[in-house]
Structures are given as C-alpha cells and as structure tokens.
C-alpha cells in the first residue's frame, strides 16, 4: 500500500519530469512499517522536501517508475525483499537517484553491499535533526 503523502501533481513537474535544481528535492520513503514511514516523512516535509511513502516493495517500485525521486530512503527489510533490491531496481532506471538504506543496527556486510549498489547504509536516524543532516549530506555529495 502506497502512503501518498503528497498529491501526484505536487511530487514532480509536468508529465512526471524530475524536479529541476531550483525546485525542492523529491524523496520516496519506504518501510514495511507505516509508523516508520510517517516518522521519517514528517520532518522531511516540514523542511520543504516533496515526500511520498510506500510500505511494500511493489508499491515502492510503482512509485519509482511513475514518479522517480531524487532520493530513495528505504528500510533494510521489505517483506520477502530487502531495501537493496529496491535500490538496485531504482538505480537501474534512474542512475542519478541518491539512495539511503536504513538498518536497526550497524551491519558491516549490509554497508559493503550498499556501497556496491551506490547507496549509503546507516542506522535508522533517531531524531529529526539527525535525519535532516543525513539527507542534506547525501544531496550535497550527489551531482544533481
């Protein structure tokens, strides 16, 4: 089930084009727990980002195809899939998309796999300022 946090016309420009550099960045937040999606989405929306959410791999894949975000933030577990599966899928179609995989604890193997996929892997941020700093650093390091 997709957690639509903004109407489609507010997520991207005309005909699903990506946001230009003078427009707010778009972020897709994915986690199998709706509470986790909302916990991450709220401060991002308050900071001015255009945020959509999803709670399944399938719904997130559909969002990636229809409204490619500038940044994908995805939980490590997504039912029978994991966050890296979604990162690989999204980066295949949108190689310039930034990606962050969140985990409940530090996992060196997951971190190494995320780097191979061109993503960052972090312990899930515990507060808004930590999340906003992570997102800001991620965008600053991307050639968008």
Question: How would you describe the overall organization of this protein?
Answer:
- There is one protein chain.
- With 144 residues, the protein is of the alpha/beta class.
- The chain has a 6-stranded mixed beta sheet with strand order 1-3-2-4-7-8, with helices on both faces. Strands 5-6 form a two-stranded antiparallel sheet.
- 36% of the residues are buried.
- The N terminus is likely disordered.
**H/E series:** EHEHEHEEEHEHEH
In CATH terms, what is the architecture?
3-Layer(aba) Sandwich
**Sheet of most strands:** 6 strands, mixed
SS field, number of helical segments: 6
The proportion of residues in beta strands is 15-25%
Protein topology:
Blueprint (H helix, E strand, L loop, with lengths): L1 E2 L4 H4 L14 E5 L3 H13 L3 E5 L2 H10 L4 E5 L1 E2 L2 E2 H11 L4 E6 L4 H9 L3 E4 L4 H13 L4
Parallel strand pairs: 2-3, 2-4, 4-7, 7-8
Antiparallel strand pairs: 1-3, 5-6
Helix pairs in contact: 3-4
Task: Write a concise synopsis of the structure shown.
This protein has 144 residues and is α/β, with parallel strands linked by helices. The protein is built from 6 helices and 8 strands; from the N terminus they run E-H-E-H-E-H-E-E-E-H-E-H-E-H.
